[in-house]
Amino acid sequence: MNVPLAARSLGWLLDAATDAMLICDARGRIVLANGALARLFGHAPGALDGQELEVLLPAGLRAAHARLREQYMDQPRPRPMGIGLELEAVRADGTGFPVEVSLSPLRDPEGPSLVLATLHDISKRKRAEHALQASEARMRAVFETAVDGIITIDERGIMERLNPAAERMFGWSEAEVAGRNVSMLMPEPDRSRHDGYLAHYLGTGEQRIIGKGREVHGLRRDGSVFPMELAVAEMRIGERRMFTGLVRDITARKAAEDEVRRLLQELTGANEELTSFAYVVSHDLKAPLRGIGSLADWIATDYADKFNDEGREHMRLLINRVHRMGALIDGILQYSRVGRVRETRVPVDLNKVLAEAVDLLAPSTGVTVRVAPGMPTIVTEPTRIGQVFHNLISNAIKHMDKPDGHVDVTWADEGAQWRFAVTDNGPGIEARHFERIFQLFQTLAPRDRVESTGVGLALVKKIVEMYGGTVTVQSEPGAGATFSFTLPKAQR
């Protein structure tokens, strides 16, 4: 191909350039392409010389580009990079990529006009732009959909942005507050102090809110004041300092906290009343009850020969009911102390606890209590765990209806918790009564036949659940019953 003089004179410069460059004539033929351009497009050196410029473009763009090229050649002028064309180019292998083009007309004294084109592969820049656009879209979505209010201000305290949550919170639209001082959203005295605080921070760097969270008050458009949680972050955009405030309306939380405080005060008062009641029960009721019991025992003994069978039965019922009343008072006192009076938790050897419980209950000759060997040592309150086993074993003995009764106490290690069970071969319980028997003062057998206060199982349930465990019963009428309970090894 005959290379024009202007192209030949620039050949050495194009070959030395690291940018992809080519020279084309007025008809759009490539007169000269440097090595950088050949490498960029995946062609062999010199392979593009003499070909039409549009060979570097996708087929769908070639016709339109040819028309643009012809228009340019009618009035050629320099077009620097940055304001030049951004085109989709195509490599020899058919893959497309974006390029930016700058154009410089060349005058050839021996022939027609030429154009020097410099091409930059802007794939990385485009990827960065797309990533930035995606990031901006994500940030915009967060800004628009955030539940908390977001307010941005400049270093003078002038508001620039409010997200929809902040608009709803304060009652102002973004357009209404843009350009106004953020102190308008604050009640006094914070409103008057704000500008001074901001100036102090900018001058000294001493932080009071920046980078921290604190509870403050906000001022709505209607003049109402509400509690809010505020966190402020500082950022720089070029030479500008900007501040972003994250605002959360904590009106509901504050109301809940006030309600909790009120309930705690009521609970404290109720506990104090319960303590007073327990004192009255212990001292003012049991004393006369003991007197009645002693008097009834004295009458039954000294006047035994004066009573007929009916009178002796009445005296027996009177004495039993006095004893039951005393036991009921003791049960109520024990129930009221659970969770209110706490012991120090210490390692408790359950072998010893159960031996003492069985010894204290002194089962009759017709009932055998068997404790599984190797009961574990657990960290708990000694009195409370003793009450649990005492009540379960006592219930089994008390309701035993077999001449050869047996009560078995077993245990199992279930990893995170212990499981204990008390099984008897007594009368059993119908499934419809399973929930009822754990309620306070509930008994299944007539009290004149079986002495029971109806407190024992309720006390067991309250103690076990206080430790984070559960109590269950399995039983069928006539086939005995198994009361089992769990205790977490990490008790609360």
Distance between the termini: 93 Å
Number of helices: 12
The tally of structural domains comes to 4
Here the CATH topology of the largest domain equals Heat Shock Protein 90
Radius of gyration over all CA atoms, rounded: 47 Å
Q: Which architecture of the largest domain does the CATH hierarchy give at level 2?
A: 2-Layer Sandwich
CATH superfamily placement of the largest domain: Histidine kinase-like ATPase, C-terminal domain
Strand-pairing-aware structural class: alpha+beta
Question: Major β-sheet, in short?
Answer: 5 strands, antiparallel
What topology, given as strand order, has the largest sheet? 2-1-5-4-3
Task: Please tell me what the overall shape is.
Answer: elongated
Report low-confidence residues grouped into runs of 5 or more.
446-450
What portion of the residues fall into strands of 2 or more residues?
Answer: 15-25%
Please outline the helices and strands:
Elements: H1 5-16, E1 20-25, E2 30-33, H2 35-41, H3 59-74, E3 85-90, E4 96-106, E5 114-121, H4 123-145, E6 149-154, E7 159-162, H5 164-170, H6 174-177, H7 190-204, E8 213-219, E9 225-237, E10 240-249, H8 251-302, H9 309-337, E11 346-349, H10 350-361, E12 367-371, E13 377-380, H11 382-398, E14 405-413, E15 417-424, H12 456-466, E16 471-475, E17 481-488
Parallel strand pairs: 12-14
Antiparallel strand pairs: 1-2, 1-5, 3-4, 4-5, 6-7, 6-10, 8-9, 9-10, 11-13, 14-15, 15-17, 16-17
Helix pairs in contact: 8-9, 10-11, 11-12
InterPro entries: BphY/WalK/GraS-like (IPR050351), HATPase_C_sf (IPR036890), HATPase_dom (IPR003594), His_kinase_dom (IPR005467), HisK_dim/P_dom (IPR003661), HisK_dim/P_sf (IPR036097), PAC (IPR001610), PAS (IPR000014)
Keywords: ATP-binding, Kinase, Membrane, Nucleotide-binding, Phosphoprotein, Transferase
Protein name: Sensor protein FixL
